[in-house]
Amino acid sequence: MQLTAMREREEVDSVSRNMMKEWFDDSSTGKKLLDYACKQVEGRKRFQVDDEWIDEPKGRITDVQYRLTPEAVNGVLAAAQVWNMLEGRKQFKSTNPEEIVVKLWEKFVSGDELFLFTPWGPRYGYETRGTEIKENDAETKALEELAEVTKGIRDTGMNVTNLLMYADLYGTDVNGLPVNVVRAYGQSLKQTAVDRLQDPLVKPWSVIRSGAQDMYDALCAQVSEMFGTYVSEGTFEKMVKVGERFNPGSGRESSRKYCIERVVEARMIDLLYDPIKASMVIPEKDELDGSLKRVYVINNRAPWLGR
What we know:
Distance between the termini: 35 Å
Largest sheet: 5 strands, parallel
Shape: elongated
Mean pLDDT: 92
Number of strands: 9
CATH architecture of the largest domain: 3-Layer(aba) Sandwich
Oligomer: single chain
Number of domains: 2
Low-confidence stretches: 1-10
Structural class: alpha/beta
């Protein structure tokens, strides 16, 4: 549904479950959002039974009407518009779709900033590709895709900011890349992101981590002590296979370090920014993300690998 349709409904303060079939590609997600919105604004429900609207549910209910506020109804429509756009672009199934739609509604109604979080790895093929991102590189194409997604959200009136997290320490501390290489690529990434995105927040993981050092230390200790609770044996063994490719002979050690860092990172990002993650990897690579809400809408995946 287009933004013009939302504007036409500015003064509407009621919406029905059956309307969700028109507003959402997945009507069940829309219905659950209505229930949530009704509770938040202390709305009122009416029930359709035998073509009549009544205040108390009884008999065979064919529809439910929600009396909300105009802003709450507009929020439902805005959330539907964004969700349908995300679903139309999806490469893989999103995680926690109902929580994502609720988050979109909350940010629209409150006007608070919505962070669209995208982690970005260092460039591992720097020996042949260098450290500068060029016009036709996979990184540029991926950022242009991200810009389209962000515009689709912003067009509803939501206040959205791209949070691009450069995973610098994963390159230097975990996988042993030269510091100067990681730093140079990070500078190129920041400039390319600023050129392609509207006022992005580009922050290296090292900066986020040091800015909340006490939180980081506490979470590291917790995850390290209860490693098996946070990282399943199957997931860890898969990480070890990957780790051996980057660190032959020390894959197990580096993989444990990586897993702890990833679990802590996801938890910290969730606590600090409460974002929706626009992932650039396949879902299997996000197994350590915990409760982070994630969408997979970028076709140029893991562009830092030059695929």
